[in-house]
Design a protein that fits this description.
heterodimer, A: 344 residues, alpha+beta, seven-stranded antiparallel sheet, 40% helix, 30% strand, flat, B: 200 residues, mainly alpha, 9 helices, 68% helix, disordered N terminus
Chain lengths: 344, 200
């Protein structure tokens, strides 16, 4: 098999939809030249499809697709039905129309039977648990009740395909922002290890690994209660702007005023720095942009910076900082090194 | 799952329609992803695949009384999706019989919904295999496969040559082929397991 590598380039180009007509012809003649080549090709094709199917599997939500079809198919059918009935009533009824009418009555029973079946079905099965994992970037997700969740990279959320029973219970590992759909009859409860956060429709931020064995809950709007699963009577109530600091080891919950303006920056890329240390800013940037910026000169860490950024690229942000502090940026593949003389 | 279920006895006409809708939903839930995956082989685009499969289900629902229940509904669905795919590539891309042939996309498989779906274990293996790729290689691969960028766009974004993008893509594919070799032959068995566990 001569220059197989070259053909693997071609094969991947073909799968990625990048191969030109000439390249396709080249690939075809290579395949026909030797049965072994077809075997190599099939192996790559299977590999490619395995990876693609993983992607498809993760990117398609059956519930959402079914909703779409349901509204297309069954909503419009109902509308047609009513128009037809209206027409029938305005005309004199022939024998066949009476049959039609009888069928209609039968249809009503059918629908009733249908509903009772669905209701039976609804109460008789346990909804499947779903798990979403934000592997490479923030992941926005709608839950069955309309609640929207933005998961930070590396975080996992578990929830049922359908919220049954008298509350809406989900499980979080990591960091997320929730915008909870309002439903007074069904409290929304988030479990993060032993901590429970109970809400009735609000938006807030949870970080179940805030570092140093801590968790954080910051409330944006609404009202919520934070408590430990074994102490449901010791609830700490948060109002907008409050932050609950939770120590996992001591099992304490402390309410403080949230002073971190940038707690949502990983989602919004909006950052406000007011006389902040460059060392701290770099840490925030690394989190927001999933970057690996390293300070090579220690005396830079204490430089103070005041600046506001709104959804700018990392390059743009670094350029602004560079203009303020005067450092040099050295990009080495994934690492960005920053060095300079520091500030007086 | 076919529409010929034991529930549909003659004397219980009232229930027919209702169960048919429930059966239709079950059919949809069991087969939607598999059919999308099948369509994706032809059209290479998730959004288009989803739309084609949605259309096929609408088609099935509209013809639900006229279809031949001696054949499985699945192979009926597969045929509709297959025809829709061919129409799509005819209208939107160049249609090349030879290419379809060497990719084994001719003739149509009987049950597209038996297509490989992925267990969480394999899903993890795939993620791990991608994570193991060297930094640059992974970056190129992710931009191409998960963000749908063209080679040229990747080259521009990463400020590398298009030739480098090509090389990195094929490096990624070679690595994945080796890493996932164990999973290639068992893909069909997995489908069966998934389906059976879904029935519970």
């Amino acid at each position: 098999m001569t220059n197989e590598i070259e053909y693997i380039d071609l094969i991947s180009k073909h799968f990625a939809g990048e191969a030109s007509n000439e390249e396709m012809k080249l690939l075809l003649s290579w395949l026909k030249a030797d049965a072994a080549n077809q075997k190599v090709f099939d192996d790559y094709k299977n590999t490619w499809e395995l990876v693609e199917s993983e992607k498809i599997n993760n990117q398609i939500s059956i519930d959402a697709e079914w909703e779409k079809l349901n509204s297309k198919l069954f909503m419009s059918a109902d509308e047609k039905e009513t128009t037809k009935i209206y027409k029938l009533n305005t005309e004199r009824k022939s024998a066949s129309q009476w049959v039609y009418r009888a069928l209609r009555i039968a249809a009503v029973f059918t629908l009733l039977a249908g509903f009772s079946y669905l209701i039976y079905h609804y109460y008789s099965y346990e909804p499947k648990q779903k798990q979403v994992f934000a592997q490479t970037e923030n992941l926005e997700n709608k839950l069955p009740d309309g609640t929207s969740v933005v998961l930070h990279k590396g975080s996992t959320l578990e929830y049922p395909e359908e919220f049954k029973g008298n509350n809406r219970s989900v499980k979080l590992t990591g960091e997320a922002y929730f915008d909870v759909a309002h439903d007074k009859t069904k409290p929304f409860i988030i479990s993060a290890e032993d901590l429970r956060i109970e809400v009735l429709g609000t938006s807030f931020y949870v970080n179940s690994n805030a570092g140093n064995g801590k968790m954080e809950v910051v409330l944006t709007t609404g009202k919520l209660a934070v408590f430990y699963k074994d102490k449901p009577n010791n609830k700490v109530i948060l109002n907008p702007g409050d932050k609950a600091e939770v120590s996992k080891a001591e099992k304490t919950i402390t309410k403080v005023v949230n002073e971190d303006q940038n707690y949502m920056a990983w989602k919004t890329k909006k950052m406000v720095f007011f006389d902040d240390r460059l060392g701290d800013i770099i840490q925030i940037l690394n989190k927001v942009y999933n970057s690996n910026i390293q300070l090579k000169s220690e005396n830079l860490a204490d430089c103070r910076i005041t600046a506001t950024f709104d959804n700018q690229s990392l390059d743009a942000v670094l350029n602004v900082l560079k203009a303020t502090v005067d450092f040099t940026i050295n990009k080495k593949s994934s690492v960005i090194e920053i060095s300079g003389n520091g500030c007086k | 799952m076919s529409f010929k279920t034991p529930f549909l006895s003659e004397e219980n006409q009232h229930k027919i329609q209702a169960i048919t809708k429930a059966a239709f939903e079950e059919l949809f839930r069991d087969n939607f992803k598999g059919l999308c995956f099948f369509a994706h082989k032809y059209v290479r685009d998730i959004q288009t695949s989803k739309e084609l499969v949605q259309d096929a289900f609408i088609n099935l629902w509209e013809k639900r009384e006229g279809i031949d229940t001696s054949k499985s509904v699945k192979s009926y669905l597969t045929t509709i999706v297959y025809n829709k795919c061919l129409n799509y590539i005819r209208d939107n891309k160049k249609f090349d019989r030879e290419i379809l042939e060497f990719e084994n996309l001719f003739p149509v498989q009987d049950n597209a919904s038996d297509e490989k779906l992925i267990t969480s274990e394999i899903s993890k293996q795939i993620k791990d295999a991608i994570d193991e790729l060297p930094e640059k290689c992974r970056e190129v691969f992710m931009l191409s496969r998960y963000q749908n960028l063209k080679y040229q766009e990747i080259a521009d974004k990463l400020m590398i040559s298009i030739k480098t993008v090509e090389t990195q893509m094929s490096k990624a594919l070679q690595h994945l082929r080796i890493k996932l070799a164990d999973y290639l032959p068992i893909m069909l068995i997995i489908v069966e397991i998934i389906k059976n566990s879904n029935k519970n």
